[in-house]
Amino acid sequence: MGKHRRPASPHQLSDLLRLDPGAPVDLTRIDPGSTPGSDEGKKRAREVQAGLAPRFADLQERLYAQGRSGGPRRVLLVLQGMDTSGKGGVSRHVLGQVDPQGVTIAAFGAPTEEELAHDFLWRIERELPAAGQIGVFDRSHYEDIVSVRVRGLAPQEVWEARYDRINDWERQLVEDGTTVVKVFLHISRAESKERLLARLDDPTKHWKYKAKDVDDRALWPAWQQAYADVLQRCGTDVAPWFVVPADHKWYRDLAVTSLLVEQLERFGLGWPAADVDVAAERARLLAAE
Ligand code: AMP
Ligand code: MG
User: CB within 10 Å: which end of the chain, N or C, has fewer?
Assistant: First the structure.
């Protein structure tokens, strides 16, 4: 980056992080340790994020208020990434900045027998956010391509058919009033190893450690290729993918906060009008004891 280039304001981060729909995706060319649009370091990034927080909370409350008043809008934040990439951290540190009443978080693990007996979108549809809500998917329908492919859980024709299914399904979601924000948290193999080691070294984190996480690491290139393919084939104009470099937690949190603020700003939401005669109600209240 040239030194004359003006630092991007947080509101422009989406332009730096969005993948062009249809363009080839090569994750090896995106540095997980990079911090696009935020080159002044952790302290400054935390300050910028703190500055955005009141705006974020205000916008989220408008969305919630509109939902309570019959507005159709809702936001779905889809989080994908390798284990330790910080999906849970985003839920805590980014969504933790707004009123929890307006946030619904769904985490998708390996499907149950009941879930496997249904179409792969069945369990997903049941967790979609209601009007006025910001829904967060900690893993999602994309596992039904990526995990299934890398672990060989179904033949290729099964997961191959899902790229188009997902694109059609997401298009319908968007038409029905859901803004879909898809984020791939891009962590490096080295940083992921550090975080797994930290889990083993800290008894308060042992519960997070799963032996299969190390097995998954052994297949790292296969996971990266499977992710690159969904990023490419399921990046659409109506529901593009954003790649957030995730080796720095402070950058990850600032970036996802900025993406959400930017989407919410775009709605231009006001406050719902009162459904009562405010002056008359005021008079009635004053007249009462
Ligand atoms: P965690 O997020 O650490 O609780 O791990 C959830 C595990 O569930 C991960 O290993 C995922 O790969 C796995 N998983 C989630 N969805 C699916 C799916 N549709 N098919 C297979 N595995 C899945
Ligand atoms: Mg895990």
Answer: C
